[in-house]
Predict the 3D structure of the following.
Amino acid sequence: MHVYLNGKIVPSKEALVSVFDHGFLYGDGIYETMRVYDRVIFMLDEHLQRLYRSASLIGLMIPLMLTA
């Protein structure tokens, strides 16, 4: 498995977060749940809009632009 971390796709075993990371120290975070039917994310555009809106409300920058 690979994950996106600090602008790179890396193997999950190499994905380390500093103990000084702001999100780690203060618990900043957002999440958006998504429903999938037949391997297609239901209302993906709406989910992404909510994700970006939530991020902006807490001052969190999402460096990767996701689109449907």
Notes: The mean pLDDT is 87. The CA atoms of residues 7 and 34 lie 23 Å apart. The first helix runs from residue 22 to 26. The chain is about 30% helix and 20% strand.
